[in-house]
Protein 1
Amino acid sequence: MSHLSSPLMLGTLKLPNRIAISPMCQYSAVDGIAQPWHTMHLGSMAISGAGLVIAEATGVTPEGRISPHCLGLYTDEQESALTRLVADIRSYSATPLGIQLGHAGRKASAEGFDSGAPAMPDVGGWQPVGPSAFPIQNDWPVPKPLNSADIEQIVEAFVSAARRADRAGFDLVELHGAHGYLLSSFLSPVANQRTDCFGGSLENRMRLPLRIAQAVREALPMHKPLGMRINGTDHVEDGITIEEAGILAAALRDIGCDYVSVSSGGNSHAQKIPSTVPGYQVSYASDIRKSSGIATMTVGMILEPQQAEDIVSTASSDMIAIARAALDNPRWPMHALTELGMTPEYPKPYWRSGPEIWRGYKWVHRN
Ligand SMILES: Cc1cc2nc3c(=O)[nH]c(=O)nc-3n(C[C@H](O)[C@H](O)[C@H](O)COP(=O)(O)O)c2cc1C
């Protein structure tokens, strides 16, 4: 058996293999409500052969959505739509389904599809909030710094959204603590210039993400795994360091989190990300795994089955996640497992395209 195809326990949830589909914003929601597109997109990922599919960054408040077109989980209607989506997918796939809950902070109210520019009020935009009154970029609105009452409301919003995600039937919750969104901006000295108990020392900068993780852990049933996507680095001087990320991961483990998904960047436009290099974020996951002892997911330019297998077999990371490779080829996990000598189960209606039945498979995949 290949390492990539071996099961992984996250809490009591058994992932059938180590390949996850990374959360991907679809900018296709209406008032935060999932549309048939979401069922189609996540449904296709759920029959990809992956061991876990994580739904896109989903706002815990209206202002916490990345764009006016992002999913939200703060109304009954949004919860009902996601409940239907999970039930529809469950009717033909047992693949574990997770959801990423987030607050976009000072990067909220982006246009979405059309550009990375801020959405103005006439197209549904709003004033973002953040740790401090510093915009992500000069042409972005100045965020309103959160006061302690705002912070309490945001903790409660995460708890409420996690309860809704649980009721909707998701198997796992991931908190978005990366890419410069709210939790990431509190963690990063580049964005967080507060002088109260939420700014300054690492202990203070971690306070909000850890408060949220703890509150969500307590709200979710113990058998449902909880993870957080975090930055291994901000790719700028004075950003979060890999040592700090390791300390954060250890604190998350102590709270009862089951894994961290290690990404990077998004807190500063001065960043220089080596994002064209295959596996450019693997070393961050590996360092954090070693220093904290928590299970890790690594993501970013994981392109080849053998590359994925090597990452898992050398214990650089417990899991790998793919995003664009899965959009390009929604059966990437099945093809990868086949290339590594496994016989993944095809959904019955696709059975005739499997490697054991279809002679064309070898031609198409050249193996
Ligand atoms: C269309 C698209 C939407 C994305 N949306 C999210 C998101 O909602 N949450 C998140 O943490 N990352 C998001 N990402 C980042 C991916 O999850 C992933 O970390 C990144 O694309 C690198 O992986 P890849 O090289 O396999 O694409 C998105 C990426 C893409 C391409």
Note: The chain has a mean pLDDT of 96.
Protein 2
Amino acid sequence: MEKHKKPPLIIDSGSSTIKAGLAGDKIPSLTIPSFVGRAKFPHTLKKRTSDTYVGFEAERNISQLKLRYPISRGKVENWADVEELWKYVYSALSLTTNAQPVIISETSFNPCENREKTAEIFFETFNVPGMLLASQGILSLYSTGSTTGVILDCGEGTTQITPIYEGFSIAQAITRMDLAGKDLTEHLIRLLMRSGYSISSSHDIELARTIKEQKCYVSPAKIDMNSPLEKALPESFTMPDGRIIPLANERYLAAEILFTPDRLGLELPGISQLLINSVQNTAIDLRKNLYSKIYVTGGTTLMTGFGQRLLGDIKKASPKDVKVKMVLANNRINACWLGASVLSSTSEFGNSVISRRRYEEEGNRIFYTWPF
Ligand SMILES: Nc1ncnc2c1ncn2[C@@H]1O[C@H](COP(=O)(O)OP(=O)(O)OP(=O)(O)O)[C@@H](O)[C@H]1O
Ligand SMILES: [Mg+2]
């Protein structure tokens, strides 16, 4: 078994934020947006050596930056930008890259080339002594203290359903839908534009995300497209430039697309049906058990009314002889990170880390046999 003196660094690189910190801590000590900013008008910002802004500096100067999101739908699309973000993590936490192993979370169906590229950066550029790539679904379940259950994780870029039995994900039943928080924000923007508001800059889009988080909610039941819309309590949001945006039915219409994607013309099942399909794809003798152990994680599930609607819809559409039980995990925006911290305290952890020596000996082929 590889013994590492220092606790591993855990990095959960999500489409909206990167959560990072040392295993053993109760929460990630660093959460930074997963965007990289470049000055819109370089002469208006202080002169500096790099032309990119990341982390807290990017947040501070956000209104003057053009933003790029290098992680799209949970998958890295721009390696140079992501490397910049990961370097920032080490410097913000005052860690040297070769001092401790690293646990990296990965989305389901992460392509092998992405695993290879991740390993190349951590082993060859950062010189880490060991690395573990772990499924976000399995990690999230560990955070709940269980080893059997179905994890529904709905974040910024993806909605992932991972049925797990005694610590192993059931590969044929894992599902992922590329419809999540980002799409709700974009739908809210469309609804606001229809009411005459213009939202176009990267900063405006980040503000729309805040409006969604603070003012939107999930309708308790499916919205009938043929009946007049129920009136939401009016609300408003004041933009930093003083503009006041009034909000009415947009408050619940934005999130409805997650439950009834056909409203957008998308040929996708709603989130509740997605979960049912996934459980129905497991062995028949496991299903009852899984329906009674549904765990909900990810930032989008924090929206008011989300749990109630999801549970109601699943109860309506699942087989009649099953008892549906659902847990809204504590600290569910950090569930994946926390699960990695739990995993690192188990006796099997040392054996699952790929050491640098093994990487040098076996090369990339390790990642082709790696489980989901
Ligand atoms: N209170 C809230 N209400 C609604 N949405 C919220 C709330 N808080 C956070 N969110 C949304 O949750 C999403 C971020 O969740 P999370 O951190 O789980 O995603 P991520 O890990 O960055 O992305 P992914 O896992 O999809 O790659 C964003 O879309 C954000 O707007
Ligand atoms: Mg995530």
Note: The chain has 13 helices and 19 strands.
